[in-house]
């Protein structure tokens, strides 16, 4: 049997554990705040892009590979220099850019690690979705952004942390029951705390990964622009990706396409970032992403 005092002790322990580990767990870079007008402008871009896409033909396999080779050659050295400038010394910035030729692989691009080296993979099916060098440059730059912002490492930690938060919720339920004079047996308590942990872990991983996509889009815009491409034009690819794609990226990877955040949010984010990049260029500065205050 658990009494109110014991349950309170549980909550206190979980609170301390969560507060200790949650510090410094958000994004490293500033992610844009979007108003309704920004989203409306993005929706107009999506409508225009869909109308255009309905008219144009698609590339054959050779053309797709040629486009990839050309763009990868331009983006890779810029992404590597950007990575070295933005990350701690000792970070592996030697990107490996590869095409996944498995015909069964769904349309997506993702970042992973192979023997500690950051790998940016694009599937053949995804190249079918790409209509311009600007789009492919933006996708590759976005993937490089996941590595530069350390998303895969952060996700691992945060899934565990959110589990602690969920367990805390379970413990609160136990405490409420106990303080209302009800007796809670050990088995019920463990189920509540454990169930809360699982829900917290799942919810936490999803919430964080959405902000990370916008952060990767932000860094992607800086890298693609520096490589000589137009990230505004590049982000139009979001207008043509269907909801059926990107639901299941390979485990242990940070992918380009997922159903959340929504396309208008991502297009509007790139629009807002591009306004900042243009302002920095206009004042004679080399554009650099804004870091969040710790
Ligand atoms: Zn991504």
UniProtKB/TrEMBL annotation:
Residues 97-272 form the Peptidase M48 domain. Residues 1-23 form the signal peptide. Its EC number is 3.4.24.-. It comes from the Bacteria. The keyword Kinase does not apply. Residues 244-263 are annotated as: Disordered. Belongs to the peptidase M48 family. This is M48 family metalloprotease. The lineage of its organism: Bacteria, Pseudomonadati, Pseudomonadota, Alphaproteobacteria, Rhodospirillales.
